[in-house]
Amino acid sequence: MIGTVVANEWRAIARDGRGRLLLALGALLAVVSVWTAASIDEVERAAGGEAMECARERWLEREVDHPHSRAHFGDYLFRPAGPLAGLDSGVQAVTGRVLFTEAHRQNAATHRPQAAAGALLRFDRLEPAMVLVMIVPLLLGLLGFASVSGERESGRLRLLLVQGGRPAGIVLGKTLALWTVGAAICLLVVGAHLAVSPSAEPMRAAAFCALHLVGLWIVAALVVTVSALVRRTSAAASLTIGLWMVAVLVVPRIAAQTSLALEPLPTRDAFEAAMRHDRDQGLDGHDPRDERRVALEKEVLAEYGVSTKEELPIDIGGIVMQADEEYGNKVWDTHFGRLEETFGRQSSILTTFALANPLLALDAISTAMAGTDLATDLAFQRQAERYRRDMVAALNHEHAYGGARPGLSGWKPDPEFYAGFEPFTFDAPALGDQLARRSTELVAIAVWVALSAVGLWFASRTIGRGGAA
Amino acid sequence: MMRLALELEVRTLLRSPARLALLALFWAAGVAAIVLGRAETAVWRAAVQAGEERESEAIAEARGLLAAGETGPADQPWVDLRQPFWVDRLAGTRLARLPSPLAGIAHASPEEGVLVTHVHRSADPLVEQGSRLRNPELVALGGLDLVMVLTLLLPALILALGAGIGGFERATGVLSLIRTQSGRDTSWLVARAAAAGLVGTAAGVLLALGAALSGGADVLSTAWFLALVTAYGAVWTALVALVATRARHPSHGAVLLGATWIVLCALVPAIGRDRAAAEAADDFGVELSLAARDRMDEIHDGGAESLRDSVAARFPGPFESIDGAEDRPVADRHLFDGQRVLEMERRQGARDVRERRQAILVSGASVLSPAVAFAHALERLAGRDAGSAARFRDAVVGAVADRVAWLLAASRREPLAARDFEELLAAGPADVEPERVQPWWGFLLLTAWSLSIAAIVRVSTRK
């Protein structure tokens, strides 16, 4: 029975001009999105690699200089693209990917890749995840809103029931038929991505595909449920388009605005002014008249049992600079920590909305699977900051204990010292860890799968009782 | 016939809970967007106000010190207001970008221009980030502003209201009856489509009017805003009429209109966005990071001597009266600042070229998609487009160049006095007012779209 309904639905779609139009549009979008996203992703990976090599060369080829000069010269770090960035660019499209690490301050990442889109940035990017989360649900809605209501209006539904068709079989068959359309597009998207992206990870891609297949099942079930519960085809069309508008265009934006309203962020000006204020309370390594600096110098002199800096066997400047760094690090940890906490609370509010909107939950899990979510971006920033601190600490140590002495002008470390610095490498979080952070969204998807089953049960009961006839 | 069609549409709307819910949803989203827009504009004004207050405090402190004959605060003995370097630090001229009355309608604009900036010798508006800290997860979801509501939801509303037109008449045989009775079946379909479009467009126009009134927009801006919304509504109404003359069944109409929405509101803008992204895919900021650092290193290694000619060519005034070599070290004190301005202006030129390429891309996408044309025209009207941000950036670059010219000249007058401080303040830049925009291009494009579709309807129904 179910197989017959599925086959009939497929035949109807294939025969009907509107079905062919939508299938062609879906296939076109799938192919174009994969092709453009993959080509951009490959160019970005290659350019990112070149930029990293270029930065490394600059570090190694620079004339040997004083460690503190080198700390100001700093190093540029480039955020690598996520493992499935070609399928879902997530937050990586709107976050900076170049980070300058230097002494005395923790910088923010700059150069957002999508900033170049300028006025077009308002519109969604054509990438596989956008097609699967935004466009395919609309296609399924347009293909399926009349699946039951149209049959009812034409009288075919009564005929089916008279001929012995079971309501549950009809509903399930129509849902399956609709889902297979979405599934075909999903498989086309992921398959094409694997074919054109040599850097894609098959396991992640399989998980990504499975997730979206589940999401499309929920969408198909909801479309058929609406079609079965609504009396007229035109009302089913309005309701389906309305639900899609709510789920895809309105709720995500409302969720974002609500998160921001409930957990506001300071302006950049206020944030930086607060950090500057706290930073000014600490030791200033560059100000010889700073009281804390003078106190630290006295401490070091006492430790070495000498009365003047000139008598020290080390360069006290390196110790002072490291003390300055350590105070600054506490300030950065406090302020950036607070910022991260606010981000976390905002994300929790989004998660609450995701419980009510399966597409929002789907989107969150999708970016986590692609390795392009906020958690990955924050992990990059944390690792980059750790790299900066280790780099500056090593330079300050060399400055203090490498052989420099007060009054010994022109001292420079051994050239091998700089070659010994390992370049930055980003250790991306594992898929399991990323999914563990999205456990609420995973539960939301499971709940929605159950709800879609309940919806289909209601739909079949309505048909069985001759409701909405 | 139009009156009959309008009455029918209103009756159908009032009888259909689904349609009423859709209209209510559109209105709710629109009102929420207006409220959020007002709040965001208030934040913008507060940022400008806070900047002004901080500037006034810094100036008052410096004036107090100068009046008391002190060179700096007691706890900062290294500050010396007789030197241009410290006058520059304490003069604290802030340059603000003032919001237009319609700024709230595009508060979720992706343009993240700086709203208030501190003008000093080493300020660089090209590397500054936006005034707001943003959670990228929220940014990626998009913002709810009136531009978004009108660009994406208004067409969806008109399509939902008009999806069954034509298809319903054909499927039920009503159209044959109308043709037999009056011979004007096409006129009936067009009138119904126009009535559905009128209901949807009226909902949009009312939201636009509410936003303009609540923002305190002037009559001309309000008129442009309403004209753009009406023209955009007309495009989608014409599309509904076109589909109505073709659809054999309500579901056919819905599918055709849905596919049209996908193409015009999602596909074409997305392809445009990807084209722009592809242009910048290999831009890892190397030019602004590694290469810029190398250039400044070379400049520092070369010493001041190597800079004098280029800086003197850019800032001829301060160098005109240098007669002897003994004058040079004084004038040379801010040569690196002068060179930094030259570098900044060079990068600004490169950025202008890139933005011109973007503008061409947006124009192309505007011709292919009324959604892009409409959104872009509204962002211009709201003063939240790339051009508006560029104007502010240009003003900041100009103000920094003026500041450096003053430093170059003032370094020869050391020690400076209170009148020098006042002179610098008096020469400070004025806040950047929003530009009065008349988005003719967007309006003409939308009108051309409507007329073209109407012509197609006319030609196809004659056949």
Quick synopsis:
The complex is a heterodimer of chains A (469) and B (463). With 469 residues, chain A is an all-alpha fold.
What this model shows, in words?
The complex is a heterodimer of chains A (469) and B (463). With 469 residues, chain A is mainly alpha-helical. Chain A has helices at 2-15, 17-61, 67-73, 128-144, 149-154, 156-162, 167-196, 202-229, 233-262, 268-280, 291-304, 316-356, 358-370, 374-401, 415-419, 431-437, 439-464; strands spanning 75-78, 98-101. A two-stranded antiparallel ribbon of chain A has the order 1-2. In chain A, α1 (2-15) crosses α7 (167-196). Chain A is elongated and about 105 Å long. The relative contact order of chain A is 0.14. The model of chain A has no long low-confidence stretch (mean pLDDT 87). Chain B is mainly α and 463 residues long. Chain B has 19 helices and two strands. Chain B has a two-stranded antiparallel sheet. In chain B, α2 (17-67) packs parallel to α8 (185-215), α10 runs antiparallel to α15 (335-368) and α15 packs antiparallel against α17 (386-410).
Structural class of chain A: mainly alpha
In one word, what is the shape of chain B?
A: elongated
Number of helices of chain B: 19
Helix content of chain B: over 70%
Write the H/E string of chain A, N to C.
HHHEEHHHHHHHHHHHHHH
Distance between the termini of chain A: 22 Å
